[in-house]
Amino acid sequence: MSGITDIPDWTWNESGLSYPWLNASPDTMSSMYSMSPISHVENVIAPVFLMIGKNDLRVPPSQGYEFYNALKARGKEVFMNTYDDNHPLAKVENDVNVMINAAVFFNNCLDA
């Protein structure tokens, strides 16, 4: 994600690394990968609900799709909605949809 997000410095900082304004070395990429959710997909035990903005510049939608498919392939309980929106999913119609679907998701999880 570091190379394709609009805030690459944030990805470095979240990984505990200082941002050198250079391309990541293979060792740095390996370190970042080991901290990434996709590297821990086998350990997911809770249901997951992904809300993906198709125009997201912060978290590329492709990474959400990859995480969804990795969970599905392992038989994990995962749901995904996609929205014609950016990172904050701030369009009113999307915000309403997110709140309703999140409430339904959590209600189903708690009733299970």
Structure report:
This protein is mostly helical. The chain is built from 4 helices and 2 strands; from the N terminus they run ααβαβα. The chain has helices at 8-14, 26-34, 61-73, 92-111; strands at residues 48-53, 78-83. Strands 1-2 form a two-stranded parallel sheet. The mean pLDDT is 91.
Number of strands: 2
Helical stretch tally: 4
* Backbone CA Rg: 16 Å
Instruction: Tell me the overall shape.
Output: globular
Which sequence of strands runs across the widest sheet? Answer: 1-2
Oligomer: single chain
Order of helices and strands: HHEHEH
Helix-strand makeup class: mainly alpha
Give the helix level as a range of percent. Answer: 40-55%
Main beta sheet: 2 strands, parallel
List unreliable stretches of 5+ residues: none
Rounded mean pLDDT is 91
Between the first and last Cα atoms, what is the distance in angstroms? 34 Å
What's the structural blueprint in terms of helices and strands?
Layout: H1 8-14, H2 26-34, E1 48-53, H3 61-73, E2 78-83, H4 92-111
Parallel strand pairs: 1-2
In short:
The protein is mainly α. The chain is 44% helix and 11% strand.
